[in-house]
Amino acid sequence: MLNLLVKNMQIVRIDMLKGKIWLNGELVEWEDAKVHILTHSMHYASSVFEGLRVYNGKIFKLKEHIERLLRSAQALKLHSKHDYDDIFQACIEVVEKNEIKDGYVRPLIWRGAETVKIGAVNNSINSMVAAWEVAKPAKINELSLCVAKWRKPNSKTFPVDIKSSGNYTTLVVSQLEALENGYDDAIMLDENDYIAECTTSNIFFVKDKEIVTPKTTNCLNGITRQTVIEIARQNGYKVAEADITLNDIPNFEGCFITGTASEIKPVTVIHFKNQDYTLPNTEVSEFLLNKYREMAENYDYIPRFIYSNSNTL
Ligand code: PMP
């Protein structure tokens, strides 16, 4: 069984875990899953990835995540010999082999180290899937957000609905800056000053029985976002997608973020224009989290999906 990442409040290094990683079709030991320092994707962020969660030994929304991974790979011209079924099986295999009950799964597709030419047409295309346990938080922390100084790159720059490593440059820097300044995360605005999302999650605002979230023009249409909208509507909430600015924040009573890793977390403070705005209503996010967990914990795999264009990329 894999070590928990946090043991007695000590952070355990992810690269020092024990277990099996699926690498280009084979299961290898954790410590042997290595790449060369001249790997193309390390220099130019020419890779794509996914983040999935395991509940009760099953990977929640596995199909949706693999579809997005393959869409991301297509956008980066990462023509892998491993198709939908290979990655689907690889995800299940690493969860089973490592005996993960509640955990995280990380697939990655990347360009190899044969040359460092930008247009490395003949470089190998590699795939891996790793999985490890994560402890469920005993208590849900209320988050505080600031506003990032960088803008979310728009969809004319590159598709925003994929998880390519290059899309994360701005997000990594913005999250680091938020943490340095004592906040849990940052709101990313788009080029038109509309709220797009947070660095690794979507954002929702609450007023009475109404929930509003940014349109997907300049954010990732998260799998959790879509699930939460569905759950909320099934439970009598009105959910609207709208253009939201920072000036709208004082009109809301609650706020929460959604994402595979973070699930649904309440946000109670947003800092902008030198002021802290409080959003005390956490009831809606607590309700949705309970419903979301119920769904995730009772999830089972749906029958094989045929990837529409071709079986291999
Ligand atoms: N936006 C960004 C930028 C993200 O990285 C994530 C996490 N994948 C999300 C939103 C939430 O997406 P999902 O619910 O599919 O995990």
Helix and strand topology:
Elements (H helix, E strand, L loop, with lengths): L5 E2 L2 E2 L8 E4 L2 E4 L10 H5 L2 E3 L2 E4 L2 E2 L2 H14 L8 H14 L5 E9 L13 E9 L9 E9 L17 H12 L4 E5 L5 E4 L3 E6 L2 E5 L8 H12 L3 E5 L11 E6 L3 E10 L2 E4 L4 H15 L16
Parallel strand pairs: 10-11, 10-17, 14-15
Antiparallel strand pairs: 1-2, 3-4, 3-9, 5-8, 6-7, 6-8, 8-9, 11-12, 13-14, 13-16, 16-17, 17-18
Helix pairs in contact: 2-3
Question: In words, what does this structure look like?
Answer:
- The longest helix is centred in the C-terminal third of the chain and has 15 residues, at 283-297.
- Helix 2 packs across helix 3 (84-97).
- The protein is α+β, with helices and mostly antiparallel strands.
- Strands 10, 11, 12, 13, 14, 15, 16, 17 and 18 form a 9-stranded mixed beta sheet that branches. Strands 3, 4, 5, 6, 7, 8 and 9 form a 7-stranded antiparallel beta sheet that branches. The protein has a two-stranded antiparallel sheet with strand order 1-2.
- The model is unreliable at 305-313 (pLDDT under 50).
- It is built from 6 helices and 18 strands.
- 23% of the residues lie in helices and 30% in strands.
- 4'-deoxy-4'-aminopyridoxal-5'-phosphate (PMP) binds next to helix 5 and strand 16.
